[in-house]
Design a protein that fits this description.
single chain; mainly alpha; Arc Repressor Mutant, subunit A; Four Helix Bundle (Hemerythrin (Met), subunit A); 2 domains; three-stranded antiparallel β-sheet; 10 helices; 3 strands; 68% helix
C-alpha cells in the first residue's frame, strides 16, 4: 500500500493532475513494488476521489511505460528498465531528436531561444535531491527543453513519434534514493545545443543533440548497472 496522503481537490483538471502527480511520485519513489497490481478503487479511496481520475492518470502513465495494462487484470507496476532497454530507448531517441534539433534550429525565433534558455536556468536552480518531490522541478525543466525543440520541429508525425517514447521518466526512476547524478553534464550538453540555436547553425544543433543523447545513454546504463549491483 502506498503512503499517499488523501486530499480533496475540486477543480476537475487540477484533480486529474493531482492524482497523476501523486501516482508518479509513488512509482518513482518505489512505494509500489515492481509487478504489483494497482487497485483503482483502493487509490481512489486513499485520495478521496472517484475512480475516474485514477483511471485517467493510469492511462497517461501507461504511455510513459511506468505502468502496464494487462488484459482482464488491470494495471501493474512496470519494472525498472534493464540496461539493454535503456540503451534501446536512447537509440530510438537518437533517431528522432537530432532531426528535431536541426529542424527547430533552422527556423528558430527569439521567443523559442528565450524559452530554451529559461529551461536551462531552471535546471541550474532546481533541487536534485533523492525523492521525486525533490527533483521534480529539475525533471520538468529537462522535459520542457526537449519538448520545446520537438514541438518547434514543425512535423506533427515526428512529434507524435517523440511523444510515444515517454521522455526521460525511465531515466529518472534510477535517481530515487540517489538524487540526480548527472546534472552538471546534462546542463553543459543542453547549453551546447542552445549555443547552436544562438548561432543559427542547424547542423551544429543536430551534432550537439547527438552528443547529449550519447552522454545520456552512457550515464543511464552506468546508473542502471550500479543499481542492480546494489540489490
Amino acid at each position: 500500500m502506498t503512503e499517499i496522503r488523501p486530499r480533496r481537490v475540486l477543480n476537475r483538471q487540477v484533480l486529474a493532475d493531482y492524482v497523476y502527480e501523486e501516482l508518479m511520485a509513488s512509482l518513482i519513489d518505489g512505494r509500489f513494488e515492481a509487478g504489483a497490481g494497482i487497485s483503482i478503487d483502493g487509490i481512489a479511496r486513499e485520495l478521496e476521489v472517484s475512480p475516474t481520475p485514477v483511471r485517467e492518470a493510469l492511462a497517461r502513465l501507461e504511455h510513459t511505460g511506468m505502468v502496464r495494462r494487462v488484459a482482464l487484470r488491470g494495471y501493474k507496476v512496470a519494472p525498472l528498465f534493464t540496461p539493454k532497454e535503456l540503451e534501446q530507448l536512447v537509440d530510438a531517441r537518437l533517431v528522432i531528436e537530432p532531426v528535431n534539433a536541426e529542424r527547430a534550429c533552422g527556423h528558430s525565433t527569439p521567443e523559442l531561444y528565450k524559452e530554451l534558455e529559461q529551461t536551462i536556468e531552471a535546471l541550474r536552480s532546481s533541487p536534485t535531491g533523492t525523492s521525486y518531490a525533490e527533483f521534480r522541478d529539475y525533471w520538468k525543466a529537462d522535459e520542457d527543453f526537449h519538448r520545446l525543440i520537438a514541438e518547434h520541429a514543425d512535423n506533427p508525425f515526428i512529434l507524435s513519434a517523440y511523444n510515444t517514447l515517454g521522455g526521460q521518466v525511465q531515466r529518472f526512476r534510477f535517481f530515487a534514493g540517489l538524487g540526480v547524478t548527472d546534472a552538471e553534464s546534462a546542463i553543459a550538453e543542453h547549453t551546447k545545443i542552445l549555443d547552436a540555436f544562438a548561432a543559427g547553425d542547424p547542423a551544429a544543433a543536430r551534432e550537439a543533440m547527438v552528443a547529449h543523447l550519447n552522454g545520456v545513454k552512457q550515464r543511464s546504463i552506468q546508473d542502471s548497472v550500479e543499481s542492480v549491483d546494489k540489490t
